[in-house]
């Protein structure tokens, strides 16, 4: 029996064209040049996935500081169809979770998924994501145009933030809980 190898590698100016090609094959939407410029500056938040030294997937994220929260936004996480269900998506997701866990300061991780992409929805649900909203007409030039917002909460914000001591304690306790994620 041969052993398969799954590894993650950095996105660099030398391999960015591989990411562009991969995204055109995997996703029904196209990404502009600014997306790829941002990806080159994303460091650990952008990785190519290699299966036996062949680029077969990628994950690209960014930090979102809106709604008085610090959240990690998964812009893309995808794998070529013949290589799905081999654990590659899980390796990419675990990399992102480990990043968030190591940072310890994210409220949640979220992303948009086309409403008919049941495979992606089920993938994220197995990691504790929930559908928290549906955005109508989110996508341009593809059908269906609606997207679910999926979110995994990493820490709860304190319900009463009038007292700094209460808020700080609640956040540090939640942060400790966020760090207790383990992957089997």
From TrEMBL:
GO biological process: one example: mitotic cell cycle
Domain N-acetyltransferase: 6-155
Highest taxon in the source lineage: Eukaryota
InterPro entries: Acyl_CoA_acyltransferase, GNAT_dom, N-term/lysine_N-AcTrnsfr
Major subcellular location class: cytoplasm
GO MF terms, alphabetically ordered: protein N-terminal-methionine acetyltransferase activity
Matching Pfam families: Acetyltransf_1
Gene Ontology cellular component terms for the protein in this record: cytosol; NatA complex
Positions of the UniProt region annotated as Disordered: 156-184
Biased composition (Low complexity): 157-174
Reactions accelerated catalytically: N-terminal L-methionyl-L-tyrosyl-[protein] + acetyl-CoA = N-terminal N(alpha)-acetyl-L-methionyl-L-tyrosyl-[protein] + CoA + H(+); N-terminal L-methionyl-L-leucyl-[protein] + acetyl-CoA = N-terminal N(alpha)-acetyl-L-methionyl-L-leucyl-[protein] + CoA + H(+); N-terminal L-methionyl-L-seryl-[protein] + acetyl-CoA = N-terminal N(alpha)-acetyl-L-methionyl-L-seryl-[protein] + CoA + H(+); N-terminal L-methionyl-L-phenylalanyl-[protein] + acetyl-CoA = N-terminal N(alpha)-acetyl-L-methionyl-L-phenylalanyl-[protein] + CoA + H(+)
This protein's UniProt keywords: Acyltransferase, Cytoplasm, Transferase
EC number: 2.3.1.258
Compartments reported by the entry: Cytoplasm
Name assigned to this protein: N-terminal methionine N(alpha)-acetyltransferase NatE
Organism: Drosophila simulans
């Amino acid at each position: 029996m041969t052993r398969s190898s799954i590894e993650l590698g950095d996105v660099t100016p030398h391999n960015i064209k591989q990411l562009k090609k991969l995204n055109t094959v995997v996703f029904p939407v196209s990404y502009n040049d600014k997306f790829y410029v941002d990806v080159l500056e994303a460091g650990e938040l952008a990785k190519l996935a290699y299966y036996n030294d062949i680029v077969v997937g990628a994950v690209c994220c960014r930090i979102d500081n809106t709604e008085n929260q610090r959240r990690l936004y998964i812009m893309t996480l995808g794998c070529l169809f013949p290589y799905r269900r081999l654990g590659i998506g899980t390796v990419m997701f675990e990399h992102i979770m480990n990043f968030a866990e190591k940072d310890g300061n994210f409220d949640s991780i979220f992303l948009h998924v086309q409403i008919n992409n049941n495979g992606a929805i089920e993938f994220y649900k197995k990691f504790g994501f929930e559908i928290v909203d549906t955005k109508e007409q989110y996508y341009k030039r593809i059908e269906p145009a609606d997207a679910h917002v999926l979110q995994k909460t990493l820490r709860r914000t304190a319900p009463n933030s009038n007292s700094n001591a209460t808020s700080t304690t609640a956040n540090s306790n939640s942060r400790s809980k966020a760090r207790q994620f383990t992957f089997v």
